[in-house]
Amino acid sequence: MEDRSHKVLLALVMLFLFAVIVLQYVCPGTECQLLRLRALSPSAAADPYRAEDETPARFVPRFNFSADDLLRRVDFNIKGDDLIVFLHIQKTGGTTFGRHLVRNIQLEQPCECRAGQKKCTCHRPGKRETWLFSRFSTGWSCGLHADWTELTNCVPSVVDSKKEVRLRPSR
């Protein structure tokens, strides 16, 4: 009888250890969402930014643009002096989007992309100037991963370098 009770006790201890290991695998942090009863209450689910101890939130979501700014329509004049400057932010799908700009957009005069070449020619209709400033149209003219400041200083000089001073648009 004593041998049987040892086996039952051993089985219970093993079951407890197994449960602890599974719990650590499912909830590796110090505070497990599964064990908190407040996480199931509707008030906690309503505001994800509210701290548990009712202190003011450290992160307050806010938008830098008004709804009108986000919904405004911008007409791009490919025949005029309008220029699209593509700022490639790393690890955000920028390479795919940049390729899409030169290969898939339906325009009056689409970019010419030749097999084996990384750069495409994106000229305005009837002109020998580009409407797109990106690594797939002008190459790395302003550096490998130029940021906004570098592009602001570099783009006008690169784009307007071939024009006469009187023909350069104000940007």
Automatic annotation (TrEMBL):
Return the InterPro entries for the record: Heparan_SO4-6-sulfoTrfase (IPR010635), P-loop_NTPase (IPR027417), Sulfotransferase (IPR005331)
Asked whether the keyword Cytoplasm is assigned, the reply is no
Superkingdom as given in the UniProt entry: Eukaryota
Where in or outside the cell it occurs: the entry states: Membrane
Cellular component per GO?
membrane
In the record, what terms sit under GO molecular function?
A: heparan sulfate 6-sulfotransferase activity
Task: Specify the signal sequence span.
Answer: 1-24
Class of this enzyme? transferase
Main location per the UniProt record: membrane
Q: Mind telling me which Gene3D superfamilies this protein's record contains? A: P-loop containing nucleotide triphosphate hydrolases
What reaction does this catalyse?
Answer: alpha-D-glucosaminyl-[heparan sulfate](n) + 3'-phosphoadenylyl sulfate = 6-sulfo-alpha-D-glucosaminyl-[heparan sulfate](n) + adenosine 3',5'-bisphosphate + H(+)
Q: Name one Pfam family in it.
A: Sulfotransfer_2
Topology in the membrane? Answer: Single-pass type II membrane protein
- Alphabetical UniProt keywords: Glycoprotein, Membrane, Signal, Signal-anchor, Transferase, Transmembrane, Transmembrane helix
Q: Which Enzyme Commission number(s) are listed?
A: 2.8.2.-
What the protein does comes down to:
6-O-sulfation enzyme which catalyzes the transfer of sulfate from 3'-phosphoadenosine 5'-phosphosulfate (PAPS) to position 6 of the N-sulfoglucosamine residue (GlcNS) of heparan sulfate.
Q: Which family does it belong to?
A: Belongs to the sulfotransferase 6 family.
Protein name per the record: Heparan-sulfate 6-O-sulfotransferase
- Give the classification, highest ranks: Eukaryota, Metazoa, Chordata, Craniata, Vertebrata
